Amino acid sequence: MRYDIITAGAEDFAAAIPDLALVLAACVANGAAVGFLPPLDLDSAAAFWHGQEGAVRTGEKHILLAVTEAGRLIGTVTLALAPQVNGTHRAEIAKMLVHPDARRQGVAASLLKRAEEVARSKGRRLLVLDTREGDDAERLYARLGWQSCGTIPDYALNGDGTSHTTHVMYRQLPPPPTGLTIEPAQPDTPDAIPLINALSADLAARFGSDGRGGLAGWDAVADRSLFALARLDGVAVGCGAVRPFDGEVAEIKRMYAVPGSAGVGASILAFLEAGARHLGYRRLLLETRWANERAVAFYRRHGYRITANYGPYANRPESACLSKIL
Ligand SMILES: CC(C)(COP(=O)(O)OP(=O)(O)OC[C@H]1O[C@@H](n2cnc3c(N)ncnc32)[C@H](O)[C@@H]1OP(=O)(O)O)[C@@H](O)C(=O)NCCC(=O)NCCS
To answer: Where does the N-acetyltransferase domain start and stop, copy by copy (predicted)?
Structure first.
C-alpha cells in the first residue's frame, strides 16, 4: 500500500474532517482508548476535530494525515506544541490513530517519524504521551525509542465501567545537525552564488528551465523580501527566498539544499515561513514541476496544498502550484 504523509494546513485539515471522523469512530469502535467511550457517532467524532481547527490555524497543533494514492485517509497523529513559556522545547503526541483495516503496515511508525521531524523543525526536543497499558501502541512507542516513566492506575474509564492503567512515556529527540545556521542574507553574497548556480544547473538538466528569473528585480522589493542562507559548519548548504506576490501573499523562490544535506530544506522552509509571517504575509505560494516529485512531496509534507496555477504558470500544465496559509 502506498501512501503519503501530509502535514495538514488549515484548509487541508478542514477538508479532511469527515474522513478524520471516520477513522476516529472506527478506532473507538475497535476498542481504542483515545479519550472517548464507545459508541462514538460520526457527528460527535467530527465535532471533536472541528474543535481542533483553531489550534491548527494558530500552529499550536500540527495534525499529520496518512493518505493513500487513492485519496483515502488511513491514519493520523497530532503534535501539540506545549504553549507554556517554559515549555517551548516540548510537545505532546496525541490521537495516534490508524484505521483498523490499515494496521500492521508501518503507517503509525511513519506518522510518528514525520511528527518527530515537524517537532524538531519547531525547535521541540522533548516529546511526551500516555497510552493504555498493554495496548499495541505501547509496543509501537517502545520500538521507536520511547522511554517509559511508569504507570498511573485507574487513569481512564472503559466502556464497561471498569478503568485502566495508563503508561506515561517520553522521547528525547536527537539534537539537530550541529553547526547548522540559517540567516538572512543577500542573494549576491559570495557563498550564495554557487548554490544558486547549482540549483539552476540542476533544474535546467532535469526540467529544461533553470528558474533563474526567480530573483529578478530583487532590489526593488528587498524590503518586503527575505533570502535565507543555510550554512553547515560555516559552509553554505542551502538557500531559499520569499518575495511579494500580491498584498498579503508572498511567493517562495529558489529553495535548494545540496544533495545529502538531510533536514536542511525543512529548516530553511521553517525559517522562511516565520520570516514571511513577520513581514506580514498571510499566505505563501510556490511553483515547481509535477515532474519534480520529490519537491511536490516535500512541500505537501510541510502543509502546502495543490492550488490553481497562478500568474505566469496559469497555462503551464507542467507546473505544479502549491499554497499554504500561514
Ligand atoms: C497503535 C496503532 C496506532 C498502530 O498503528 P499501525 O499502523 O498498525 O502501527 P505499525 O504498523 O507502525 O506497527 C504495528 C505492528 O505492525 C508491524 N509491522 C509494521 N509494518 C509491517 C509490515 N509491513 N508487515 C508486517 N508487520 C508490520 C510492526 O512491527 C508492529 O508490530 P508489533 O506491534 O508486533 O511490534 C494502531 O493500532 C491504532 O490506531 N490503535 C488504536 C488507537 C490507539 O490506541 N492509539 C494510541 C493512543 S496513545
So the answer is: 1-174, 180-326
